[in-house]
Amino acid sequence: MATTTLHPAAPAYRSRSTLYDWLTTTDHKKIGIMYLINSLMFFVAGGILALVVRVELAQPGLQIVSEEFYNQAFTMHASFMLFLFIIPILAGFGNYIVPLMIGAPDMAFPRINALSLWLLPLGGLLMASGFFVSGGAAAAGWTEYPPLSGAKFSGTGTDLWIMGLTLIGTSSILGAINFLVTIFKMRAPGMTLFRMPVMVWTVLVTSILVLMATPVLTSALIMLFIDRNYGGHFFDPNNGGNAILYQNVFWFYSHPAVYIMILPAMGIISEVLPVFSRKPLFGYKAFVFATVGIGALGFSVWAHHMFTTGAVFLPFFSLMTFLIAVPTGVKMFNWIATLWRGQLTFATPLLFATGFLMLFLIGGLNGAFSAAVPVDFALHDTYWVVAHLHYVLFGGSVFGVFAGIYYWFPKMTGRMLDEGLGKLQFVLMFIGFNLTFFPMHQLGLAGMPRRIADYAASTGWSELNTVATIGGFIIAASMLPFFWNVLVSLRSGKVAGDDPWEANTLEWATSSPPPPYNFDHLPEIRSERPVFDARHGRTTNH
Amino acid sequence: MTANPSALTTADTHHAAADTHGSGGIGNPVLGMLLFITSEVMFFAGLFAAYFSIRAGYTQIINNVPTHVWPPTQPIDFAKLLNPFQLFTESGALNVILPATILLVISSFTCQMAVHAIRNDNRTSFVRNMAVTVTLGITFLLLQAFDYSVLMHEGLNMGSTTFGTTYFTLTGFHGAHVFGGVLMLSVVLYRGMAGQFSAKHHDMVEATSLYWHFVDVVWILLFMTLYVL
After folding, report:
1. What ipTM is given for this predicted complex?
2. In angstroms, how far is the first alpha carbon of chain A from the final one?
3. In sequence order, what E strands does B63-133 have?
C-alpha cells in the first residue's frame, strides 16, 4: 500500500472554530463524546424528576405537586432515563470504543452516524416540550397504554411524546445498522470475530436487537398516533379494535429493549474486570454464546409483562423467562471466575464493576421471582417491580456506565479522573442506591402500588418511603463529586499516557486522545488481547 | 489488505476501508441497505400483526348474533367494494388497483434489468430501464391516489371500522415507502444520466434496487391479504 502525504494547504484541513468543528463533525470519537454529554444532560433532568417523585412520596398526603404533575413527572422520568440516557449513553460508548477496539478508522457510515446523534436531542426536546403545552407532558406512564394514552384521556403532550420517541427510535435503528456494518466489514487484519473484545460482541448483539425490535415500537407508536389523531380504531374495543394488541406490540420492543439497556453495560464490565484482575476474561467463548443466547431468548419473553391481562399463554412465557437466567448465570460465574485469584487493583472502574456484580445479582434474583406466574399475580404493578427494574437498570446499567466513564475517560481526554473523588462517588452512590431501592421490595410486598402520588398514613408505608427519599438525595449528592471530578480533571488531571491501566484491547494502542484517523500503527492481532500480547513481546512488533 | 499493518498510515486508513469493500463480499452500502430492509420488514411485521389480530377477533352483529366476518359487511360491503377483478365499482368509478399492481410488479423487472445492464457496463440500457422504472413508480402512486379518492367517495375511510383503519394504515405506509423508493430511484437515474455509475462502481444502484424489490414484495403481500384473501 502506498503511503500518501497529507496536504496541509488543502481546504478541507483549514481550521474552523472549535464549536463549528464539533457541530459538523463526522468523527466517531467526537460523536461518541457528544452522545455521552447529551445523555448525561437527560440523566440530570430525569434525576430531578425522580427527586420530585421521591419528595412527594416521602410522607402521606400531597405536599409539593398536583396529581397531574406527579403523573407527568414519573412518566417523563422513565422516558428520559430509558430512551434518552441509558440507551444512548451505551450507544455513545459503542460509538467511541467499537471502531477503536476493532482497529477501524471510523464507523462505516460517518454521516449517518452524525444523523443518529442529532436526532437524539431533537427527539428529546420534542418530548420534553410537552411540559409547555396545555395539558402538560405525557402522563400515562412510560408504557403509554391505551385507553389512558388515547385521545379521550390525554393531550398534546402525548402526541409530542410519540413524535419524539419515533425520532429517537429512528436514531437507534440507524445507529444499529452503522454498528453492524462497521463490525462486519471494517475490522483490522487479524481481528477475527472470535478475537473481538466482548464489548464489541455485546454491541453487535445489541444492534441486532435494536434492528429487529425498534421498528415494531415505531409501528405501535404510529398506530397509537393514528388512533389519537385520525380517528383510527386499532386499540378501541368499542369499534372492533384490541386494547391488548398495544401491549403486545409495545413489549415486543420493550422487553428486548431491556437487553439493549444491559448488554453493552455487561460488555463494559467484561473489559474492566480482566484489566483490574490482571487476568484474561474467564470463558471468553462461553461469554460470547451467552450474550447471543440472551439476545435470542429476549424475543420470546415479552408477554411476561402481561401475565395479569389473562390474554397470554402463561406457562410458555414463564418458562422462557426462567431460561434467560441460564446465560445470565453463565456470565455471572465468568465474571466471578475472572476476579478469582486475580491481582486486584481497586481503582474506581473496578469498584463500579463489583458494584454492578452485586446489584445486578439482586436485580436478577428478584426478577426470577417475578417470572413465577403466581408470584407475579401478587407483585404485578407494586413497588417490588420498581425495585427490580432499578436494581437491573440502575444497579446494573448505570454502575456499568460509570465504570466505563472512569475506565475510558483517560482515553477520551488524555487525563485521569481523580481516584479519591471517584471512590467518594462510588461509596455515596452505592449506599444511596441501596437505601432508595432496597426498601421498595418491602413496600411492594406490603402492597404499595406503583404510580401513585399519595397513600394513607394508616398503610404503614411512611417510614420506608422516607428512607427511600433520603437515599434518593444521597444518590443526587453522589453526582456532585462526579461532575466536579470531570471539570477539575479536564483542566488539571494527571496526564494519562497511552495506556494508563495496562489494558488489553486495541484502543490502548493509540495515543490518548486518539488522532482523528485513530491509528498510526496497529500491533499484530493474534488473540483477543493484542495490546497485552504486544506489551509482553508475544508477537513481533513492527 | 497486506499482512503488514504498520503500513496503515494516516491516508491509507481510508484506503483500508475501501479495500475491505473491494476484496470480496458485499459492499458496505449494500449490507447497510439489507440491514435497513430488515428493520423495515419488522416495521411492517408490527402492522401486519395488528391487522391479523384485529381481523381474527372481529365480530359483527348479524341477526342479533355476534358473528365473525371479514371484511365487514356493515356499514358497506367492503369485499364487494374492493374486489380487484371488477374494472368498475358499483357507482361506476374506475377500479384501478389491479392495473396498478401489475405496473408495480413490472417495475421490479425493469429495475432488475437496469441493474443487469450496469453490471455489464451498458449505460444506455441502464438509463432507459431506470427511467421506465421511475415512471412506473410514479404511475403507481398516481393510481393509488386516484383509488383512495374513489374509496373515500364510496364511504371507506380511516374511521369506517377497523377495516378502514388497517386498510389505510397499511396501504398508506406502503405508499410512503413507494414515494421514498421513487425519490431514491430518481437520484439513481440522475446520477446514471450524469455517467456516475459503471460496472465497477454502482453500489447505490444495487442498494436502491434491493429496496425497490422489497417495496414490491410488501405490496404483493398487501394485495393478497387486503384484496384477495
Report:
1. 0.92
2. 16
3. 65-68
What does the alpha-carbon distance between residue B25 and residue B208 come to, in Å, rounded to a whole number? 18
Half-sphere exposure of A369 (CA within 13 A, CB side): 17
> What's the maximum distance between 2 C-alpha atoms anywhere in chain A?
80
| CA-wise closest residue to A486 among A430, A429, A428, A402 | A402
Nearest chain A residue to B59, by CA: A240
A186 and B32 within 8 Å at the Cβ level: the answer is no
Residue A181 C-alpha cell reads as 456494518
- The whole-angstrom separation of Cα B185 and Cα B217 is 17
Cβ distance B54 to A189 less than 8 Å, yes or no, reads no
- What Å distances lie between residue A217 and A163, A166, A178, A210, CA to CA? 12, 8, 20, 10
Is-contact A249 A241, C-beta < 8 A?
no
Integer-rounded Cα Rg, in Å, for chain A is 23
- Which residues of A fall within a CB distance of 8 Å from B159? 230-233
β-partners of residue A157 are: A137
Note whether B17 contacts A186, CB cutoff 8 Å. Answer: yes
Closest CA relative to residue A505, chosen from A297, A198, A218, A168: A198
Which SS3 state, helix, strand or coil, does residue A104 take?
coil
Instruction: Pick out chain A residues at pLDDT < 50.
Output: 1, 541-542
Distance (Å, whole) CA A136 – CA A122: 19
Residue of B12, B13, B53 with shortest CB distance to A245? B53
Nearest by CB to residue B43, choosing from A184, A219, A522, is A219
Query: Are the C-beta atoms of A34 and A23 separated by less than 8 Å?
Result: no
- CB contact at 8 A, A509 and A498: yes
pTM: 0.92
Q: pLDDT tens digits, residue range B152-193?
A: 998 888 888 899 999 999 999 999 999 999 999 999 999 999
Q: What is the tens place of the pLDDT at every residue in A13-68?
A: 566 788 999 999 999 999 999 999 999 999 999 999 999 999 999 999 999 999 99
